[in-house]
């Protein structure tokens, strides 16, 4: 349905100089407040990790500098995003330096017999770029570089905080609600069992492909984000871009993990439950009814990160933001969305209702953030209200009406999918339809020279 997001033919209105002065006056306060908040969150996460005996965000970040990075792709993704805001010459030098440093660390780890991984180089060079921009660069060049460096750093730091949050969900929620979720999924036809069985039949090549798509979602997101931010060195900043949606989803979504802890079918009903599963039947046999419908205990290690499916939310956001791009980007966004949906179900990581909740969350957050100049008109309000109702309705029905959903799957299934379809239709009409007001593609940045020229003619 979301086939192409046409840009407006008319350019955005120029910014007023007094607005630029106002933004410049408050910008240092905003920057330092953001830095203080980030430090506070990292320190709080580190203290919490010490309490629950987990890897803290500061410890994980330290390993990115001088140890073995936990993720081989996150640092590179943030680094590549940051390079969008610097000149081509700096880009080439920074990229060469990051690769060279990574090769040195790889050689050291090989000598020591440690596992192969990368990620030290981009973290070190990203930090060096931030210092260089603050100390040596000036004006628009420094501002643009620091903004993209901040985006890249936020992506890395958000991942570090997300890792400790997953450990917190396992520590704080000894009981999980998988029995309710599996029962509720009867209304959707048990899609995890169906797709999981289909992947088994398809063979290891298909499993490997969807697994790669599932775990490398950040790489695809960076491709879309880099395309959206490609003009920032010339002062063309988009009013809204994918990184904003990704970060907000990562901030809000995990709250659901504590409110509705679920570990997934491959753990609660499959071979990876390590003795905690109700039955080892996924994906070959759907659990027979009736079975005890109650919260079930699970270990204190496995994250409760199923409801909502943030992989679905992020992949859908990637798909939406790719609609403005060229043909290859639109096809890539569609491929990653389909591949992610297949992976979330077929690998046993999620139930069907998780995906519905994740999609509703994505469309709600995207409607809140999209086209800020448009304001809160009727279309935006309707989509946000419908999204909140859909998200809350799925969680409440799954928790309190699971047995009724299993006993009457057709009406409940039609109601859930029909509500989601209505939400998608409202989102499309509000942001992509013929009567929608497309957001301006860029915002004009007012330089100091322009302000001075107006102030002192």
Q: Trace the largest sheet across and list its strands.
A: 1-3
Helix-residue proportion: 55-70%
Q: Roughly how many Å is the radius of gyration? A: 23 Å
Low-confidence stretches: 1-26, 444-457
Query: Total domains, how many?
Result: 2
SS-based class: mainly alpha
What is the number of beta strands?
4
Determine the N-to-C terminus distance.
Answer: 51 Å
How much strand?
under 5%
The oligomeric status of these chains comes to single chain
Helix tally equals 20
Structure notes:
- The chain has helices spanning 17-52, 57-66, 74-82, 88-112, 120-135, 139-172, 178-184, 191-202, 204-215, 217-228, 242-252, 255-259, 265-268, 310-322, 327-346, 352-369, 378-400, 402-407, 409-431, 448-455; strands spanning 175-176, 236-237, 296-297, 443-444.
- Helix 1 (17-52) runs parallel beside helix 6 (139-172) and helix 4 runs antiparallel to helix 5 (120-135).
- The termini are far apart.
- The chain has 20 helices and four strands.
- The strands form two sheets. It has a two-stranded antiparallel sheet. The chain has a two-stranded antiparallel sheet with strand order 2-4.
- Mean pLDDT is 87; it is low at 1-26 and 444-457.
- It folds into two domains: 18-172, no CATH class; 175-457, no CATH class.
- With 457 residues, it is an all-alpha fold.
């Amino acid at each position: 349905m979301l086939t192409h997001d046409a840009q407006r033919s008319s350019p955005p209105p120029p910014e007023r100089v007094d607005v630029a002065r106002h933004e410049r006056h408050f910008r240092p306060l905003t920057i330092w407040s953001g830095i203080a908040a980030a430090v506070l969150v990292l320190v709080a996460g580190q203290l919490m990790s010490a309490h629950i005996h987990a890897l803290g965000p500061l410890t994980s970040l330290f390993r990115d500098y001088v140890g073995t990075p936990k993720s081989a792709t996150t640092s590179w993704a943030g680094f590549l995003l940051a390079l969008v805001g610097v000149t081509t010459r700096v880009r080439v030098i920074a990229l060469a330096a990051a690769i060279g440093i990574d090769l040195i660390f790889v050689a050291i780890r090989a000598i020591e017999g440690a596992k192969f991984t990368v990620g030290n180089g981009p973290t070190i060079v990203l930090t060096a770029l931030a210092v260089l921009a603050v100390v040596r660069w000036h004006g628009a060049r420094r501002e643009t570089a620091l903004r993209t460096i901040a985006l890249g750093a936020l992506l890395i730091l958000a991942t570090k905080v997300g890792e400790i949050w997953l450990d917190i969900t396992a520590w704080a929620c000894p009981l999980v609600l998988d029995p309710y979720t599996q029962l509720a999924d009867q209304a959707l036809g048990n899609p995890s069992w169906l797709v999981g069985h289909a992947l088994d039949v398809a063979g290891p090549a298909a499993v490997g492909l969807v697994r790669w798509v599932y775990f490398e979602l950040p790489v695809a997101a960076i491709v879309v984000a880099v395309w959206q931010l490609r003009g920032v060195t010339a002062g063309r900043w988009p009013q809204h871009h994918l990184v904003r949606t990704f970060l907000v989803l990562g901030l809000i979504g995990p709250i659901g993990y504590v409110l509705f802890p679920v570990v997934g079918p491959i753990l609660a009903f499959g071979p990876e439950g390590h003795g905690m599963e109700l039955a080892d039947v996924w994906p070959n046999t759907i659990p027979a009814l009736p079975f005890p419908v109650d919260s079930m205990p699970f270990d204190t290690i496995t994250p409760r990160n199923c409801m909502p499916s943030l992989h679905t939310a992020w992949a859908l956001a990637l798909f939406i933001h790719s609609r403005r791009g060229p043909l290859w980007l639109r096809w890539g966004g569609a491929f990653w969305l389909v591949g992610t949906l297949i992976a979330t179900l077929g690998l046993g990581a999620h139930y069907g209702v998780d995906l519905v909740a994740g999609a509703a969350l994505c469309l709600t957050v995207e409607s809140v953030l999209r086209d800020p100049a448009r304001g809160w008109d009727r279309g935006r309000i309707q989509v946000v209200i419908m999204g909140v109702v859909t998200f809350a309705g799925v969680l409440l029905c799954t928790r309190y009406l699971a047995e009724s959903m299993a006993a009457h799957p057709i009406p409940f299934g039609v109601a859930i999918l029909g509500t989601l379809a209505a939400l998608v239709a409202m989102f499309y009409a509000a942001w992509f339809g013929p009567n929608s007001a497309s957001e301006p593609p860029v915002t004009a940045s007012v330089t100091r020279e322009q302000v001075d020229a107006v102030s002192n003619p």
